[in-house]
Amino acid sequence: MSDKYLLPCSCGQKIPVTKGQSGGQVACACGAMLDVPTLMELTALEPAEADNVSRDTSGRWGIRQRLILIGLIVFLMGLGPGVYVFGQRPAPPNQEIDPDRVQEQFDRLTPLGTWRVWHVFMETGLQRRTQNLNVAYEEALTTWWLRFGTSIAVAGVGLALVLVGVVVVPQSSAETGEASDNSAIDADAEDE
Fold first, then answer.
1. Nearest 5 degrees, angle CA 126-CA 127-CA 133?
2. pTM as predicted
3. What is the pLDDT of residue 58?
4. Pick from 135, 145, 139: which is nearest to 88 by CA?
């Protein structure tokens, strides 16, 4: 059973009315005010065709809501790892040598351990160790920037999708509360 019926006007047009409008009045495109029959009399009118009946799309999401949702998900997918990676930034190597700590470590060495340390220093030198520390730090910092930058870029893409959904994509008629299918206006436009 149809929820919409066609109410005839004296001008020849048929205005679609719903059961909720029974007992009220509707305006025809010609300007005449028509009394909508009661619910019992309304069922005697010609039912509106399924093609002419606008479907209720208020429960469906349009492109705007989808863009905003996808944008928020992508934003959070970038922001979460970005916060984690930000907290994992490598600390610069400590290049200051604490003489008391060095003396403490050498005091614990056996004579054979001392000879091995002396032998390593003779082969590599003292400066090489600090250079290796700086190279390792620079590599770790480059990797950190790559990860942090990627997560921020993903969050930026998500934020851009949200902004496009909010600012650029127009609201559909279902969102604004306007009727998406007004047969009386369509019929009037076709007559002109």
1. 110
2. 0.46
3. 54
4. 145
